[in-house]
Amino acid sequence: MQELVLIQPSGTLGKESGREAAQADATREFEARLAECGPLAYRVARGVLRNSADAEDVAQEALLRAYRSFDRLRDRDRFRAWLVRISFRLALDRLRSAKRREVRDVLWSQPAQRPPAATAEDLAASSEFQAHLDRALEELPEKLRLVLLLAAMEGHTIDEIAALLAIPSGTVKSRIFVARKQLAEKLRCHVNLTKTR
To answer: Among the listed ranges 106-120, 131-145, 178-192, which one has the minimum average pLDDT value?
Structure first.
């Protein structure tokens, strides 16, 4: 198999080799500065997190970010302070994230946060109430039941119901008011019966 060779136009060859040389110089400079103050990233992270494993992760992330952004650092003599800032901010982010996760886990693990399990009595009362509600809705006059169902169950606005039924908005409002009042009276009897048991 023959090897492919990319031949660049002679005009761009100088530009590319110039960029590559500048990149190589930047890489060498980064490595020199890193050898001088690389362990500092770990020490800063360890001071914030108090955990060696997390501090190592944060230090690695800080060094990676510093490497990616090194060419944008204007004053290379400030590399040490810049690396400290990156490490410190990443460590704080990790710490905050861990605290939020811990609070969330604690809150959800507490029994008070979970809804209480429904008892057989609760289920019976619920199904009994649903039966009374259905019966009370059936007893309402059709024109009242219709506007109540459209508003409460279907979520339509007063104006939408008025347009659907071709009646004025004021009529819809008064029918909903009367329907709710009658329904409340019918259900009040059931609630009073349940309380006396």
So the answer is: 106-120
pLDDT digits (tens, 9 = 90+) for 64-87: 998 888 888 888 788 888 888 898
For residues 120 and 152, the answer to whether their CB atoms sit within 8 Å is: no
- Tokens 């009374």 sit at which residue? 132
Q: What is the pTM of this model?
A: 0.45
> Which residue stretches of 110-157 are H helix?
120-139, 142-148
Do 59 and 41 touch, CB atoms closer than 8 A? yes
**Where along the chain do its domains lie?**
13-112, 120-196
Angle formed at CA 58 by CA 52 and CA 63, multiple of 5 degrees: 125
Q: Which CATH architecture has domain 13-112?
A: Orthogonal Bundle (1.10)
Q: What percent of the chain has pLDDT over 90?
A: 16
Tell me which CATH code domain 120-196 carries.
1.10.10.10
